Amino acid sequence: MKETVMQFGEGGFLRGFVDYFFHKLNEQGLYDGKIVVIQPIEQGMVSMLNEQKGEYNLFLRGIENGQVVNEHTHVTSISRGINPYTDFDAYMELAENPDLRVIVSNTTEAGIEYLGTENLEDRPAKSYPAKLTQFLYKRFQLGLKGFIILPCELIDHNADTLKECILKYANLWQLPEAFVNWLETENSFCNTLVDRIVTGYPRDEVEELTKQIGYVDNLIDTAEIFHLWVIEGDHEDELPFNKAGYNIVWTKDAAPYKKRKVRILNGGHTSMVLGAYLYGLETVGECLKDETVSKFLKTCIFDEIVPTLGNTDTDKAFGEAVLERFANPFIRHMLLSIALNSVSKFQVRVLPTILEYKEQNGHYPKALTMSMAALIAFYKTDKANDGAEIMEFMKNASVEEILKREDYWHADLTDMIPMVQNYYDVITKEGMKAAYDLVQQ
C-alpha cells in the first residue's frame, strides 16, 4: 500500500484519533494509503512502533446513545516510523514520494513555535515548523505537488500559526520567493479542532487486555468512543471520512465549534469540579452519579450555557453527549487534575458565559455564579494548584479583592461581588450542599 500521509507525533492521541480514522478508511475500501510517522523530538517511541511494524490495539470505550460501547480495533494504518535525529536522510527522502499528500501533526501546544535559531542545513532543525520547512522546501525543489496540512495541536488557528512560522523560516533562510508562492498556492493549511479524550496506555488494565488480545502489545491505546474533528476546508473527495461514517466536519469556519466545545465541555468541567471536590467527591464519574452535583451540572449546561450559545438542537445534543462522556465508566478522571490552573481556565471557559447571560437576561446566572464562589472557597484550601502568586493571593484575599483583579478576569466584575459573596458565605458557613440547594431555589 502506498505511503500517502506523513504524521509528526507518535503519541497516544494521534494513534487513538487520526490513525484510527485512516485505518477505517482503508478497511472500508474508501482509501488506499498508509501513514509514515515522524518522531518530532529526540526522545520518542518510533523504535517501539517499528518493532511492532506500526501495528497496535485500540480500545474505544464509553456511553453512546445511552448504551455502553466497548470497541476493539487492531490498527494497521501505520507503515513505519522515522526518527529524523538518527536518520535525517530517510526523513527528507519522503519528499520524493509523489503519492504523499497529507501532513498531520500533534506536537503539543508548545510544538508550533518559531525559534529563529536554526539553519536550513541542520540535521534536523530543532522545532517542528523548521523541520517541516526543510521538508517542504525540498518538495518544492523537486517540482512535486503540495499537501493537505492538518495540525491537531490544541491552539487557536493552529494551521495559520504553523504557516506563519514556516514563512518566517523561509525569510530567515532567504528561500526564494517562488517557494513562498508555492506554499501559498499549492498547499492547503487547514485549521482544525479535535475532540476526543484519549486515555492512552492502560497501565491498570494491561494484564486483562493482554489476555484479551492474546499477545503483548507495548502500544495498546485507549480512548472514549466520542469523537469530533472539525476541519476548515473541504477535502472529502480525497479523504472520505463522512462517507466512512465518522463525525468529521468540513467547514469554512471552525470558530463556532470551538466556542461550543470550550463553553459546554470545558466550561462544564470547570464549573462543576471545584464545588464537587469541596462536597467530598473525587472523580467526574462520581459527580454524574451524585444526584445533587449532577442536577447542578445540568443546570449549568442546559439552563445557562446552552441558552447563551443560541439554544439550538445542535447545542443541546452536544450538551447531552457531554453528560454521556462525563459518565464514561471506563475513565477515572480525577477532579484535582482538572482543577489545575483553575483561575485562568475559569476566565476562558466559564466567565464569558456568565457575562453573556447577564447581557441577555439582565441578571447573572445562579449556577455559574455559584461556581465562582466555589472556586474562591477551593483556593482557600491547600489543594489548589496554580501559579505561586495566584495561590498566595487567592488564599488570603477577600471575595471583593479577588473579583476586582481585572488582570485575572479580563473584565470588571464589581457588580458580581454581592451575589458571589452570598454564595461564598453559604459555602463556608453551611457547606456545599446548602449552596447547591440555594441554586435550585
- First-last Cα distance: 63 Å
**Shape designation:** globular
**Strand arrangement, largest sheet?**
5-2-1-6-7-8
For the biggest sheet, the summary is: 6 strands, parallel
Walkthrough of the structure:
49% of the residues lie in helices and 14% in strands. The chain has helices spanning 12-16, 18-27, 46-51, 88-93, 128-141, 158-172, 177-186, 206-213, 255-279, 284-289, 291-309, 313-326, 335-338, 342-349, 351-361, 366-378, 388-396, 399-403, 406-409, 417-430, 432-440, and strands at 3-8, 34-38, 56-64, 67-75, 78-82, 102-105, 148-151, 188-189, 192-195, 221-224, 228-232, 248-251. The strands form three sheets. A six-stranded parallel beta sheet has the order 5-2-1-6-7-8. A three-stranded mixed beta sheet has the order 4-3-10. Helix 9 crosses helix 12 (313-326) and helix 9 packs across helix 14. The protein is an alpha/beta fold. The longest helix is centred in the middle third of the chain and has 25 residues, at 255-279. Strand 3 (56-64) and strand 4 (67-75) form a beta hairpin. It is globular, with a radius of gyration of 24 Å.
